[in-house]
Amino acid sequence: MTTCPECGADVTLPDDVETGEILDCATCGAELEVLSTEPVELDVAPELEEDWGE
Amino acid sequence: MVTVVKIGGARAVDPAGALADVASLVDSSAEGTSAGSQNAARSGDGEQVVVVHGGSTAVDDTLESLGEDPEYVETPSGVVGRFTDERTMEVFSMVLPGKLNTDLVVGLQNAGVNAVGLSGVDGGLLKGPRKSAVRVVEDDKQKIRRGDHSGTVKQVDSDLLDTLLAGGYTPVVTVPMLAKDSEQWLAVNSDADRAAAAVAGALDADLVLLTDVPGVLADLDDPDSVIDVVDTPTEYESLTDAAEGFMTRKVMAATEALEGGATSVTIGDANADAPVSAALEGTGTTVLPGALSEERDTETAEAEQ
To answer: Where are the alpha helices (DSSP H) in chain B?
Structure first.
């Protein structure tokens, strides 16, 4: 369990949480990026246009 | 009128027919060696052509020959694209502006066309922001991957291309593009179809996207079901519904080209006889500005009055 950086509510973490994974805050609906797992650190996930190279 | 020809990099595509056809368009009198025909090409009244090429399969082949695995990721909308880490970017720069661009320029020189090879880095031809983070889907989870060397072309130096064309040269353009990351410029990967679309838009050109199929098929199981002309929003909706897999990227590039100012986009077969001329005469799937929204058409009509 950790807290949402957007609204402060508790966020339940999956057992196999991974760095880079995007989680949804069940309270405010924010998309949260897992910046690290030990300890777990979350930040609001950036909005990114879909893009790819050649 | 300028024609932008995108030559695909798929294994099934042989560029020889397209290069010969480009030569015939640039100057129908071009023959023999390049040295003997350069002056003829300059004085000819042929078409002005810009060639754009990709080469993702050659990048994969080179990576594999070096004992390294290409990495592809899936975006949330289902598009599969390359993840270009620093090492892949090095190989990418070796292969596209290196071997592939050189080979195409030599091929055109042998066909009597005074071709000049350029990557998007040269002269700042293709510029835009770098995108180092991408959203991907892995193991049914959405994730953010960082460290990607990719970008989207937002600016084309059309003056550079116009200068070359006016001098009788045929530009052969490829990615990488030049991208700004913080205060630093660097070379990054960019989709060559979309780069060709940006070039065609900047030059108000006709765009021919050559690939290894005869056009967009209404029925994937029926090779004779090529969608012919797309010139209304309803026809455009049918086109986007029909396009699957890699063809969605072609249709997206067609859309961006028309939004940028291109006068037409044709998706055609690179292995057909005289594939560029055939596409310009309507063989394949031709998308015209009327395919985009009616609102935009109204605005354009008002602006032209």
So the answer is: 16-26, 34-43, 56-65, 86-94, 101-110, 158-166, 192-202, 233-242, 246-260, 275-280, 294-304
- By Cβ distance, the residue of A21, A22, A52 closest to B82 is A52
Could you tell me the CATH number of the domain that includes residue A16? 2.20.28.160
Helix H or strand E encompassing B211: strand B206-211
User: What is d(CA B257, CA B250) in angstroms, rounded to the nearest whole number?
Assistant: 10
Task: Report how far residue B298's alpha carbon sits from residue B205's, in angstroms, rounded to the nearest whole number.
Answer: 21
β pairing state of A40-44 and B72-74: unpaired
The encoded tokens of residue A22 equal 């995007």
In order of B2, B45, B70, B204, B272, the CA distances from B28 in angstroms are 16, 9, 41, 23, 19
The residue range of the domain holding A24 is 2-44
Output the domain CATH number for residue B79. Answer: 3.40.1160.10
pLDDT of amino acid A1: 84
Predicted pLDDT at B182: 82
Residues of A in contact with B77 (CB under 8 A): 50
First-last CA distance in chain A: 40
Residue B127's pLDDT is 97
Domain contains A52: no
Q: Which residues of B touch A48 (CB under 8 A)?
A: 131, 133-135, 144
Alpha-carbon span B64 to B62, nearest angstrom:
5
Averages of pLDDT over each 10 residues, chain B, 305 residues: 89 86 80 43 71 95 96 87 94 96 96 97 96 91 94 96 97 96 92 96 98 93 94 96 90 97 97 96 97 66 59
* Residue B20 CB contacts under 8 Å (≥ 6 apart), including other chains: B111, B274
pLDDT 10s digit of each residue in chain A, 54 long? 899 999 999 999 999 999 999 999 999 999 999 999 989 999 999 888 777 777
Taking one residue from A and the other from B, the number of pairs with CB-CB distance under 8 angstroms is: 69
Query: Number of C-alpha atoms within 13 angstroms, CB side, residue B200?
Result: 29
CA distance, residue A52 to nearest chain B CA (Å): 5
Look up residue B68 and give its two tokens: 């390294």
